[in-house]
Amino acid sequence: MMALTPATLARHELCGLHTRVAAADNATLTGIEGRVVRETKNTLSVETAATAGGATAAKQVPKAGATFEFALGGESVAPADVTPADPEAAETVHVTVEGERLVATPARRTERSSDSTWR
Predict the structure, then answer these.
(1) pLDDT per residue as tens digits for the range 85-111
(2) Between the CA of residue 65 and those of 6, 24, 26, 49, 105, what are the distances in Å?
(3) How far apart are CA 86 and CA 66, in angstroms?
(4) Is pLDDT of 81 > 80?
(5) How far apart, in whole angstroms, are the C-alpha atoms of residue 7 and residue 89?
(6) How much is the pLDDT for 1?
(7) What are the DSSP calls for the chain, one per residue?
(8) Does position 46 have pLDDT exceeding 70, yes or no?
């Protein structure tokens, strides 16, 4: 299994990673920040911080037309071991990805690798 690095991020499972919408065609989506809790072919669901009432909300963000910034911890981790990185930690690496690169079903997107035997 390939390690999760900035270069391979677009080919990995994104659920569990901390993300921020850096830019979007729809200005109301810019700035949404939280943990990716669900991914479909065309959208990412981002669980945002708790509101004053203590409830969290999952916001659905279209991949196309958006630019995402993912926070990766200092060490590479396998997808099964992914835990949200602290976006403020010194060893955190921020990776910017154009949403168009992510438009595909998660299973198909993660197969795009020259060393995959499941093509």
Answers:
(1) 555 555 788 899 999 999 998 888 877
(2) 21, 6, 8, 23, 17
(3) 22
(4) no
(5) 20
(6) 56
(7) -----TTTGGGS--TT-EEEEEEESSGGGTT-EEEEEEE-SSEEEEEEPP-TTS---EEEEESTTEEEEEEE-SS---GGG-----TTSTT-EEEEEEGGGG-S-HHHHHH--TT-S--
(8) yes
